[in-house]
Specification:
The complex is a heterodimer of chains A (about 425) and B (about 475). By secondary structure, chain A is α+β, with helices and mostly antiparallel strands. In chain A, about 25% of the residues lie in helices and about 25% in strands. Chain A has helices at about 130-140, 155-165, 175-180, 215-230, 240-260, 265-280, 325-340, 345, 410-425, and strands spanning about 1-5, 15-20, 30, 35-40, 45-50, 55-60, 65, 70-75, 230-240, 285-290, 290-295, 300, 305, 310, 315, 350-355, 375-380, 385-390, 390-405. Chain A is globular, with a radius of gyration of 27 Å. With about 475 residues, chain B is an alpha/beta fold. Chain B is about 30% helix and about 25% strand. The chains are: A alpha+beta (about 425), B alpha/beta (about 475). The interface of A and B includes residues 149, 288 and 291 of A.
Chain lengths: ~425, ~475
């Protein structure tokens, strides 16, 4: 038997939600086949079969939260699928009360009981040996202890200090907690690919409770973090899009034919924003402790709505790229976002963000800063409106734009001038050549 | 205005262990990187006239001492033992050459540009590099980020200036051409004791004069007590509490006058080594004109991310506060480069070890027992001697001990102090444990191979808990 374990998920990610088993118990698999998909707060990870064989057990069910190195299931190397015969208690570790030996039936989800996770403390790898001993003896719930060692390791001093401040915390040792984790009926959680359309509620059901996915929890945390930790303020302006629209109209066919790139408005905004950021470097900065970190490069975050929720991949060094390269990069990250194939690199290192609520029809909104960045530019729907122009009322394609900014480091003047600069460049795109 | 400025993401001023490591790390992170070094070779004090050559001589002289005094105990007879000092010095120079060439190779591999010449930092992160005569070429770099790593220099006595002929700093003490009859060493710190050991082993009479009441000031009391005993037994004439009041050259040597408890004495020797400490240097950095904040000793003030008070200017190593140690400078160099790259790293000074490469060696990390108690902490101490360690006995290296200082309540390791064979290497596991805020129990319940010297570390950790097994 080969253990199927949760792989390293990337820097600072320690847990994931099992979003979907792609192979059923008893399925024949080839080496490299994806067995199961894990969803983290940032990316979706596919766990492949390391050898050919037969998938014997799903030890964890869809919807369960797992940690790095945790056992997901077991694979019998080199075996060939045989109907039911190999069903003799595949998981030796399964406690006797796990129910009757499960045959590899066609519908494993309907199996009567889940095999509990092996009886190791969750996150055991992040607890020092002495800390584990003290926690076990004094019945300190390790999940409640904040690790202060490098990389968040829970040290013996951490456990002793925790025990001292809170008295004996949870009387339940972590082992009991793990084995007692309730078996969630699979119908109550999202078994379909994360974020896809929920099944229609049954007739007469007035409410449905649904567990937040890891990603949704993290999105929620990050949004709150931003609102709590920044001095949030939004300034608005409006842009007459007629010149840039005409320019795009004139260029788009040629660009598509010659470069295979669909020319949207976004690269124009990216260009204008990077130029405005150069003029107002603090808008591209972030706060670290009591220091302001100025970034002399622009990694432009682009908010993308994917099925699984909002993600903000960024285009690296957008300030050093031409509009066509920026277009290609945006298309590439957006595609990866929709396909759930974003990498950590795509999602980290952003210095400023543009979000376009206009694609859904929003006329004006106040975007939330993508913390720890200091500013976010909100684009909206372009709509024909009457405006005063040279003493005449004329109808122009107008867009409201918003800049939410961290007032702790960006003064109102800087924020307003940034947005004015974006407006000026967009209204007269030729000015982008002269800089 | 027509000056040509070569743009660079990162310019490092100084190619010592801090500077060259910072340059390599910056290049690894994708920055175009220039390292300015005015010497003919890279590596700074450490590689050229410090750690590396002194260790080469310590190694050679240690082998000689073993053959002269200890080989017979192993049943090995060595007739006609001789010392060829020029060969020893040449080997040392070869080792230094391998290291400096190695750094040049690393620069080529990582595409770090070595700007040969003296760097001057101007306002606006402009670095001017003046090449060596006769050309004196001037090259100007416009840096996005500057890392100052200009190092340190030995402190001079006003009445006994270095001539490197008879009045020596660490530089001259590494090139003494033959074994002196009598070497006088002013300063009983790390450098003084290491170089004293080299020449004593080779046959010189060595007198060490220390102003303070003990050698190795600042180290744990138990270490100081045992080290003092050990060095005296080895033959060093140690004069503590003794002030040097004067000195100068003689026809074929040098002398100092010393004073202790009101009585004065004149000491005559072939050479005088002045090793009373080092001071930060900031050659080419006009701090006042730049508005760069300096400390009382002229060190560049930095935060725990190596930032100075000027945006885009960082400083690392001996020219900043803290102990003047190559590994501290290296780590700070890495931190500076990573901070420039936007990584959330911080320098951990608590876990910077200190080592004296005498034999037996001395290695320390964290705080001493006295410092812990003075700060009002309840501590537990665990100590285990090498004389109770099987491997140490087989090697005939039974001098010394390992001592832990741990918090009495939480068992957190606060400090570790070692005197003994190869303790510079044994210390690594303790530092790793401290980095994770480990307790003495973590080391005590970890398997250590038998028979090894490292069992002494494990036993000392168990001793904190009152349960050492072999003592």
């Amino acid at each position: 038997m080969t253990a199927i374990k949760v792989p390293q998920l990337g820097e600072s990610i320690v847990e994931a939600t099992v979003s979907r088993w792609l192979k059923n118990e008893g399925d024949q698999v080839a080496a490299g086949d994806t067995l199961v998909e894990l969803e983290t707060d940032k990316i979706t990870v596919e766990v492949p079969a390391l050898a050919a064989g037969v998938l014997r057990t799903h030890i964890v069910k869809e919807g369960e939260v797992v940690t790095v190195d945790q056992l997901l299931g077991e694979l019998e190397d080199g075996a060939t699928a045989a109907p039911a015969t190999a069903g003799s208690t595949p998981a030796a570790a399964a406690p006797p009360d796990a129910g009757a030996p499960r045959a590899a039936t066609a519908n494993p989800v309907a199996a009567p009981a889940a095999v509990p996770a092996p009886a190791t403390a969750q996150g055991a790898a992040k607890v020092s040996p002495a800390a584990q001993r003290v926690a076990a003896e004094q019945q300190v719930d390790l999940a409640a202890v904040k690790g202060t060692g490098r990389g968040g390791v829970v040290s013996k001093p951490d456990v002793i200090e925790q025990a001292a401040t809170s008295g004996r915390t949870a009387p339940t040792p972590p082992i009991a907690k793990a084995s007692a984790s309730p078996v969630t009926p699979s119908a109550a959680i999202t078994t379909a690919p994360a974020g896809s359309i929920r099944p229609a509620p049954a007739e007469g059901t007035r409410e449905t409770r649904e567990k937040m996915t890891t990603r949704r929890k993290r999105i929620a945390e990050n949004l709150l973090l931003s609102q709590h930790n920044t001095a949030h303020l939004t300034t608005f302006n409006e842009i007459d899009m007629s010149v840039v629209s005409a320019l795009r109209e004139r260029m788009k066919e040629k660009v598509e034919k010659e470069h295979g790139v669909k020319l949207s408005f976004m690269p124009f905004f990216v260009k204008a924003a990077t130029m405005a950021l150069k003029a107002m470097p603090v808008v591209n900065a972030s706060i670290d402790g009591d220091a302001i970190v100025y970034h002399h490069y622009v990694n432009m975050g682009i908010a993308v709505a994917s099925d699984a929720g909002l993600v903000v991949p960024n285009v690296k060094d957008a300030d050093r790229k031409g509009m066509l390269d920026v277009s290609r990069d945006i298309a590439a990250v957006a595609r990866r976002a929709r396909e759930g194939k974003l990498t950590m690199d795509d999602l980290t290192g952003g210095t400023f963000t543009i979000t376009n609520g206009g694609v859904f029809g929003s006329l004006v909104s106040t975007p939330i800063i993508n913390y720890p960045q200091a500013g976010i530019l909100g684009l909206h729907k372009t709509q024909d409106r009457p405006i005063a122009f040279n003493g005449q009322v004329v109808i122009r394609p107008m867009m409201y734009v918003a800049l939410s900014y961290d007032h702790r480091i960006i003064d109102g003047q800087q924020a307003v001038l940034f947005l004015v600069k974006v407006k000026e460049l967009m209204e007269d795109p030729a000015a982008m050549l002269v800089d | 205005m027509a000056e040509s400025h070569i743009a660079a993401d990162v310019v490092v001023i100084g190619g010592g262990p801090g500077g060259y490591v910072a340059a390599i790390r910056a290049a690894q992170l994708g920055f175009s990187t220039v390292c300015v070094e005015m010497d003919r070779t890279l590596g700074g004090t450490c590689v050229n006239v410090g750690c590396i050559p002194s260790k080469a001589l310590l190694e050679s002289s240690h082998h000689f001492e073993f053959m002269a005094h200890d080989a017979a105990k192993h049943g090995i007879g060595l007739a006609n033992l001789s010392i060829d000092v020029p060969a020893m010095l040449k080997r040392k120079d070869d080792v230094v050459g391998q290291n400096t060439k190695g750094i040049e190779f690393l620069f080529r591999k990582n595409k770090v540009t070595w700007a040969k010449g003296r760097g001057t930092l101007k306002a606006g992160n402009v670095v001017e590099v003046r090449g060596a005569p006769p050309e004196n070429n001037l090259t100007t770099y416009q840096a996005t980020h500057v890392i100052i790593s200009t190092g340190s220099a030995p402190i001079e006595l006003p009445f006994l200036k270095f001539d490197e002929e008879r009045v020596l700093s660490n530089v001259g003490a590494l090139t003494i051409p033959s074994v002196p009859e009598h070497l006088i060493v002013i300063g009983g710190g790390v450098i003084g004791l290491e170089l004293s050991s080299v020449w004593r082993r080779l046959g010189a009479r060595v007198t060490v004069v220390e102003l303070l009441p003990s050698i190795l000031p600042g180290m744990d009391d138990d270490i100081v007590k045992d080290a003092d005993k050990m060095f005296r037994k080895q033959g060093l004439d140690i004069r503590t509490g003794t002030r040097v009041t004067g000195g100068g050259r003689t026809a074929d040597g040098a002398f100092v006058t010393v004073e202790k408890d009101g009585s004065t004495e004149r000491l005559d020797g072939d050479y005088v080594l002045v090793s009373i400490g080092r001071r930060p240097v900031t050659t080419g950095i006009d701090a006042e004109a730049l508005g760069l904040a300096l400390g009382r000793r002229g060190e560049v003030l930095v935060d725990d991310q190596q930032r100075t008070n000027i945006p885009g200017v960082y400083a690392i190593g001996d020219c900043t506060p803290g102990p003047m140690l190559a590994h501290k400078a290296e780590e700070e160099g890495v931190v500076a480069a990573e901070v420039i790259a936007g990584k959330p790293v911080h320098m951990h000074h608590r876990t910077v070890p200190g080592v004296v490469y005498t034999w037996p060696e001395i290695a320390v990390v964290g705080i001493t027992e006295r410092e812990a108690r003075d700060s009002g902490r309840e501590v537990k101490v665990g100590k285990f001697p090498f004389s109770a360690n099987g491997r140490a006995r087989t090697a005939g290296e039974t001098t010394g001990f390992v001592k832990f200082v741990a918090d009495a309540t939480t068992d957190e390791i606060l400090g570790c102090h070692m005197l003994g064979p190869s303790v510079s290497e044994l210390m690594a596991e303790v530092i790793l444990a401290m980095e994770y805020r480990g307790s003495s129990e973590d080391i005590g319940i970890t398997v250590h191979a038998h028979p090894t010297l490292s069992e002494t570390t494990k036993e000392a950790a168990l001793a904190v808990l009152g349960r050492a097994l072999h003592f």
